[in-house]
Structures are given as structure tokens and as C-alpha cells.
Design a protein that fits this description.
The structure is a homodimer.
Chain A lengths: L6 H9 L3 H12 L3 H14 L7 E6 L6 H14 L4 E5 L11 H7 L1 H4 L4 E4 L10 H14 L4 E6 L5 H6 L4 E6 L14 H4 L2 E4 L6 H16 L12 E4 L8 H18 L1 H28 L1 H15 L5 H13 L1 H9 L2
Parallel strand pairs in A: 1-4, 1-5, 2-3, 2-4, 5-6, 6-7
Chain lengths: ~350, ~350
């Protein structure tokens, strides 16, 4: 990265809440250059004591549900309540990243013009260490910079939601009221992750339909067993045009935070999340080295088809590949420890 | 393993449909002895051309739903139709493994006394390479031995269902009609995996209640988006006491098989499953070696708490651990290939 600052310059800038320095630090995290990685890692360790004080919130919904306008309207409410708001995107296809960042800023004009807000598009897919891990570290930097609410935007159709679930405190699902097929396009399991379902664009002629959809969704949520945190997701009608429901979303957030903190789930959940990311990073690092190994690449290319067509048993090829990475001895030794 | 046979003896026995030899071969697969593993792997490769011709069926449901009696009744129907039936369990806590195998055979008397059936409890959790992979290989041996239907029993409350989903053609979920809380105890996401929901014990006084539950479940299924295979799961009332629904279950299986074979999904799905198991085995082998590494174990013990409490960034520890396994050079090299 050009114009790299010193560790202390980054640290001072972030802790002072300087959005430009914050942005540069996140770029450092996303860089694939070895030197940037080292610096980012050291910086993160430096600011770690200043992290953890925000409310981390996932905002998920399929394209067209109005994530940008929801975040704009809800975000402005948060600013009015004296909160500092950061918005991060995790999917390349999320609204934040469609087109230019200029486009995003136009769509979130109220937020982007305010000094108490920070908007950041998603890292590119080629980021070293996985997009999830990068976004999680960006959250930590935003916290160190003093942001009170971190909104992480995902599109709700991929695997990002499972990852994002492991980095936020609260999962908000945006839906539209449709004609019977309300859940079309929502990836299986997403509904179950929701701490709150918001039926968006509940205005004008769509308001009556949204009211009916509310009952349907409440019924659907009833089918999911109670979770370990003992929280029943609510269904809320909202509109970015009329402002309907925005206060209720905020109040629900506060209620959730209070309940989870007093039950101990809040900190328990975050501790579990940190261990999840340890596992993820280990897997990611191992996979990276594995897949880049020239001999493994070549063998996979030649023999993967044999496995796929049922001519070679998967475990035979798996063992051979792992031996290429670690040496025959490593596997034998590990088996010896059983 | 004592009294180990030669490769050719195993092969000949399995292809002749000898249940005793089949059982010994599966024991070989589950063994943690290096020599058994080698032999099992070679044997599997030998019989591979004779596999793939069965209908692989998951039978899932919480304890108490009557999996044993369902399998007994449905299995006898299959025998009557001239089919050979194998039953494998995947969970240590499934009915097949609770108590002794004698107990299981008593509960599945009709099946266990018939030469055209084969019943096998689940491998112990200490099996090398993961229980899922072992069960999958047991399926292949059963197919080579000429079984037409392989029923894989799981308890529906753990992670086994995700694994079993990747080894079967058809996923059958047994439920009971209860008072409103029908899905309690069913792990999130299981309902969505079902190709067929069977409301079991629909007899006597419970019949009316089961009929009402049917409508409720059908309504719940309606909330899941259509899947790539374009199949709508049916809800069927069944009783192992009266035999209600058993024919319908069978007919649905046939209908499914026909539809999926003609659409190409059947073979597509199996090819995807083979690649899934290649990935699983690679991960399993890597994890095994990783976790057995004495230096890694020691470091994890000392520093995992620092990660959990938020004092150390997960990626820092992850990188250090992976370097212990692969050497610093390996990671640097891999990054160089980006």
C-alpha cells in the first residue's frame, strides 16, 4: 500500500475517530501484501482494548427489499439519538457495492454527509483470509474509532449470513409482503437466524398487504423452536418513506441488548464468536496453503473427475493429497496418538 | 482385527451377499488400525464398480417417534415386494444402538430374522475419519452385497442429518402429532431437508389429532422455497400398528426415484455428494493431524483463553498454529501464489 503510515499514526488516528485513517486501516486489513498484513495485525492488537463497545447489527434481505433506504432512514434516526453509525457491506453484490461507492453515497446521502457516520463497501473476494474475517476485523476498527452501532449489510441469499451471524449481536431480516411466496429467494435457514423480521415498504397501497403478511410471518416463526437465548423474534412493519416502525426497531434493539446483557448471553455469545473465528482462520489458512500447493493442484485436476464419477473412493484421494502437503509421516504419527 | 481375511475373500463374500462377511468388512472400515484401514480402502476400491444401485434413504426423527417400529413395518413391506433391505444407524444414541444389538434385533424381529435384511448399529465415535464417512462407506459395501434399499437411521437432533443428507437419495422425516409444539426438539433446518414427512403413530385416538397435524405441517412446508430438484415434500399419515400409509410411503419413493432419474437430478446429486466427501475427508485428515500436533496442543491450551476473552486477535493465533504445522515457509509460499 502506498503512503503507509506508522503503527502509532494509525492508532492515534483511529482512536481520535478520524474516518480517513479508519478507512486506510481497513484497506490495510484487506490488502494481500505481506507487509500490510503484518501491520494490520499489529495495529489490531494495539486497538483491541478499545473494541467491543458497539451494538453489532446484521441487516439482511434480498436485492430489492430496500436495504439502502432502510439503512439511510434508520441510520438518520440513530444519528438523531446521538449515536455514531458505521455501515459495512459483506457481499460484493450488496447494494453498498453495486456500482461505485459514489452511487452508494448518493443512495445514503443523509448518512454519508454526516461526520458521525461511516460507510464502507465490501472487500473484494480476493482478500486474503476470507471476506468474513476481514469484515469482522473492520468492525473492531470501527469500534476503536468510537462508533456505537455497526450495521453489517448482507444480501441474504448466500453463505454470508452464516458468517455474519458469527460477528453480530443482533440479526435483522428485511422482507417484503408478497403474494403468498413471501419467502421466495430467502436462503433456507435465514429466517431462523432472525432476531427481528422487518416487513419493509409497508406504505401506501402495500400497507394492508403488509399487515396480512405480518400475521403469516408470525405464524411461520412459531414453527421454529425457542433458542438458547430465550428471545422471540418480533415482526415489525416499517417504511423508509413514512418512517413507520423505525422507532420500534430501535426500541426492540435496546430491549434485546438489555435482556441479553443481564442474562449473560451477550458476553457468552461474543466469546463463542471469537472461538469461531479462531477455527475459521485456522481452516482458512490450512485451505489456502493446501490449494496453492502445485502438486496438489495438479493431482486434483487429474483425479477429481474420477471421484465425481464414482470410480475412485474420495477417502483414497483425500489421504493422498493430505500426504502431499504434510508428508506421509505426519498422518502416521497422528494416527499413532489415537 | 483378529481373523482378518484376504482381500479376495472379503470381495467374494460381499459380492455373494454373505451378511457375515459384509459385517466383517464394515468392521474393517471402522477400525482404527492402520492395517485394517489399508485393507478396507483397497477392498472398497475393488467393489466400487458394483455399488450405486440401491435407493439410499435417510430415516430421521427424535427419540420416541418410533423409528424402530417404522423401519420394522416398512422394511417387512419392502421384503414382501422382493427387495433386500439394509439398515444402518449413524448416531450412537439412535435406537439401533441403544443397549445391545440383541435389543435392536428384538425390536426389529421381522427384519432381523430374514436373510434378505441386514441390520447394523452405528460405529463408535472414536472411529478414525469421522462417523459420517464410515457410514457412507458401509452403504457402498451394502450395495456391493446386493441390497436394494439402504435405510440410514439418525436421531434428528444433531449434526448427523447434514452429513446423512450428503449420503442419501431421499430424506424421510418422522414426526408425531402433538399439541401445537410439534417441531419442538427437531433441530433447526431438519424440516427443510425432508423429501417426505411422515406423521407416525397415526392410530387409535391419535388419528384425529394426526389429521389436524397434517394440515399444520403442510402449511409449514409451504414456507420453504422450492428446491433445485423441483420436488414438493408430501405429508403422509402412517402407523406401524395398523400399517396405515406404508404403501403410500413406498409409492412416493418410487415416484421420486423416477422423477429424479429422468430429470438427471439423481446422478447429479450423487456426483455432488462424492465431491462433498472428498472435501470432508481432506478437512478431516488435516484437522486430525493438526489437533494431534504436540506443539499445537500445548499452544492452544495456553492461548485459547486469550482469544476467547478478547485479548488476542483470533487470526494472530491461527497463523502461529498453522505455521507450527506447516512451517513458516509454507504460508509465505502460498501467499506468493496469490
Amino acid at each position: 500500500m502506498k503512503n503507509r503510515k506508522t503503527l502509532q499514526e494509525y492508532k492515534a488516528g483511529i482512536l481520535a475517530g478520524d474516518r480517513a485513517v479508519l478507512g486506510q486501516a481497513i484497506t490495510l486489513v484487506e490488502s494481500s501484501l505481506e507487509e500490510d498484513q503484518r501491520l494490520a495485525s499489529a495495529l489490531l492488537q494495539e486497538v483491541l482494548p478499545h473494541t467491543g463497545n458497539s451494538l453489532r447489527l446484521a441487516v439482511t434481505g434480498v436485492p430489492g427489499v430496500g436495504k439502502s433506504s432502510f439503512i439511510e432512514t434508520f441510520g438518520k434516526l440513530l444519528l438523531k439519538k446521538g449515536k455514531k453509525v458505521a455501515v459495512l457491506a459483506i457481499d460484493p453484490s450488496s447494494s453498498l457495492s453495486q456500482g461505485s461507492i459514489l452511487g452508494d453515497k448518493t443512495r445514503m446521502e443523509g448518512l454519508s454527509l454526516d461526520k458521525r457516520a461511516y460507510i464502507r463497501p465490501s472487500p473484494s473476494r480476493s482478500a486474503l483470509g476470507g471476506v468474513g474475517a476481514k469484515t469482522r476485523e473492520a468492525i473492531l476498527f470501527c469500534e476503536a474509532a468510537g462508533f456505537d452501532l455497526i450495521l453489517v449489510e448482507t444480501v441474504g441469499v448466500g453463505q454470508s449470513e452464516t458468517l455474519v451471524k458469527h460477528m453480530v449481536d443482533f440479526f435483522l431480516l428485511l422482507l417484503l409482503s408478497g403474494a403468498g411466496d413471501e419467502l421466495q429467494g430467502i436462503k433456507k435457514g435465514i429466517m431462523e437466524m432472525a432476531d427481528q423480521v422487518v416487513i419493509h415498504k409497508a406504505d401506501g397501497e402495500a400497507l394492508e398487504q403488509a399487515k396480512r403478511a405480518k400475521a403469516t410471518f408470525e405464524n411461520a416463526l412459531h414453527f421454529f423452536p425457542p433458542n438458547e437465548k430465550n428471545w422471540n423474534p418480533k415482526v415489525i412493519l416499517a417504511s423508509s418513506l413514512t418512517g413507520l416502525g423505525m422507532d420500534q426497531v430501535w426500541e426492540t434493539l435496546l430491549e434485546y441488548q438489555e435482556k441479553m446483557k443481564s442474562s449473560g448471553f451477550w458476553e457468552h455469545n461474543r466469546a463463542q464468536q471469537r472461538l469461531f473465528w479462531l477455527d475459521e482462520q485456522i481452516k482458512e489458512n490450512l485451505t489456502q496453503v493446501f490449494l496453492k500447493h502445485p502438486g496438489i493442484q495438479e493431482t486434483l485436476k487429474k483425479e477429481r473427475d474420477l471421484v465425481q464419477s464414482g470410480k475412485l473412493n474420495p477417502s483414497v484421494l483425500a489421504e493422498r493429497l493430505v500426504q502431499m502437503l504434510l508428508g506421509k509421516d505426519a498422518i502416521e504419527r497422528a494416527k499413532g496418538y489415537q
